[in-house]
Write a structure and sequence with these properties.
Helix content is 21%, strand content 25%. The chain is of the alpha/beta class. The chain has a 7-stranded mixed beta sheet. Strand 2 and strand 3 (47-51) form a beta hairpin. It is globular.
Length: 268
């Protein structure tokens, strides 16, 4: 609260902006209890997790996403939390609009929280790499990702904190690791050892992230997963058009590969 109060005093964020503890997280009447976590992929790196009465959107890039084939209102219906891996526009996406509509807090790195707050975001829970926050029945941990994070305004770059991966843990549910945008790095082994994820969302599009082959290498070398879901492909013409190369590279491995239909919930 001290940091946010100081930021308000400096005029960096609006006076109505506030840190939202887990107990204050808004829950929509549309949220339904699910006995098994349901995962929905909306194309690119956008996912929704439904579990235990919570609905968590990760990197909700809907508007302007060529791979988004669902209805934005339906995709954000009942959302209780929004988690962002980093500040690029194809990951922040519709976070501000959805937060205003649903009342869901945004959980992301401190710098990106302050930048969004200056644009009117009122509920947010700032954190940084290595930190864990309680979110009313589950936790969010930010971990390392090798990428960049920022925006361009008037031709000049704006720093929006370090890029991160996200680990989400809830009692009785599989631990989920969204890698964010990243290259392969050997400390993925430490993420596996510390957090024991069972499901991972791995970027495979190449050019800006791991390629299909390097993503398969990372999964097979550093993780003991039940399932991996490829992402960050099939949206823009300069990245991989489909997951075929990743599926082929994963053949013979121990991890199940799930290539979901966009907008169709599935469980692991």
């Amino acid at each position: 609260m001290v940091l946010i109060g100081e930021a308000v005093a400096r005029g960096e964020i609006g006076a109505n902006a506030r840190y939202t503890p887990a107990a204050e997280a808004t829950h929509s009447a549309h949220t339904t209890e699910t006995k098994t976590m349901q995962i929905t992929w909306y194309g690119h790196s956008a996912f929704r997790l439904d579990f235990g009465g919570k609905a968590v959107l990760i990197d909700p890039f809907f508007t302007g996403n060529p791979a988004f084939v669902s209805d934005k209102a339906e995709a954000s219906k009942g959302v209780t939390h929004i988690v962002l891996t980093h500040g690029h526009a194809d990951h922040v996406g519709d976070a501000l609009d959805i937060a205003r509509t649903t009342g869901a807090p945004v959980i992301t790195n401190y710098d990106l929280c302050m930048w969004l707050a200056a644009q009117g975001l009122e509920k947010f829970d700032p954190m940084n790499t290595g930190g864990t926050t309680e979110q009313d029945g589950f936790t969010v941990t930010l971990v390392r990702a090798d990428h960049s994070s920022g925006d361009i305004r008037d031709g000049m770059p704006i720093y929006l904190g370090n890029p991160c991966g996200v680990v989400i843990k809830a009692k009785g549910e599989p631990t989920v690791y969204h890698m964010g945008d990243t290259d392969v790095f050997s400390d993925m082994a430490l993420i596996n050892e510390l957090h024991r994820p069972k499901v991972a969302f791995a970027p495979i599009g190449d050019r800006f992230t791991m390629s299909p082959s390097s993503a398969a290498f990372a999964v097979n070398r550093f993780f003991t997963l039940d399932a991996v879901v490829p992402c960050h492909y099939g949206s823009f013409p300069i990245i991989e058009p489909n997951a075929d190369k990743f599926v082929a590279a994963m053949k013979g491995g121990k991890t199940r590969v799930i290539v979901p239909q966009k907008g169709k919930p599935f469980s692991v």
